[in-house]
Structure formats: C-alpha cells, structure tokens
UniProtKB/TrEMBL annotation:
It comes from Bacteroides fragilis str. 3998T(B)3. It comes from the Bacteria. Gene3D superfamilies: Bit1 (3.40.1490.10). Pfam families: DUF2000. This is DUF2000 domain-containing protein. InterPro entries: DUF2000 (IPR018988), Pep_tRNA_hydro_II_dom_sf (IPR023476). SUPFAM superfamilies: Peptidyl-tRNA hydrolase II.
Length: 88
C-alpha cells in the first residue's frame, strides 16, 4: 500500500517555468494553497542545518528549482499548468 491512493500527475517544465509557477501561485490569494518547492540547494544539502543556512543566505537568483508540488483547487492548477506535458 502506498502513501496515497489519489493520482498525482507529474508534469514536465523548465527551471524557469517552475519558478514562474511558484511566483504565480504565491501571488494568488488561495485559502487552502499548499506549495512545496524543490531547489538545487535542497538536493545538495546533507543536513537540515546546512539547508537552512544555505537558504537563509541565498538570494532569489541563487534559487534554481527542479520541482514543485502544488495542492489547490483544481481550476487554479489547470489554468496555470494546462500547457505542460505529462511525464510518462
């Protein structure tokens, strides 16, 4: 048995598109928005303390996103991600 029985689509996007989506969803006033971004800093950090230290000292240009998890109303997600292709 897995963590969830709900389908989770995985869509492909460039680092720039992921950053654009992140900024877009942050600009919306969606009450139940859950946004989790994954950066190269997170990938390269060996401990949470190291990650926290690197994130604290990073500026926006240092953040290169490799993924993003978005949980929000379906309409908002579809509007923002409708042009992205499904990864198979």
């Amino acid at each position: 048995m897995g963590i969830t029985q709900l389908p989770i689509p995985i869509l492909g996007a460039s680092q720039e598109k992921i950053k654009e989506l992140r900024n877009y969803f942050h600009s919306l006033e969606i009450e139940d928005l859950v946004l989790v971004d994954f950066s190269t800093i997170a990938q390269q950090s060996r401990t949470y303390d190291e990650y926290e230290r690197e994130m604290y000292s990073a500026n926006e240009d240092d953040l290169h996103y490799v993924g993003i998890g978005i949980c929000a109303e379906k309409k908002a997600i579809n509007k923002a991600t409708g042009s992205l292709s499904l990864i198979r």
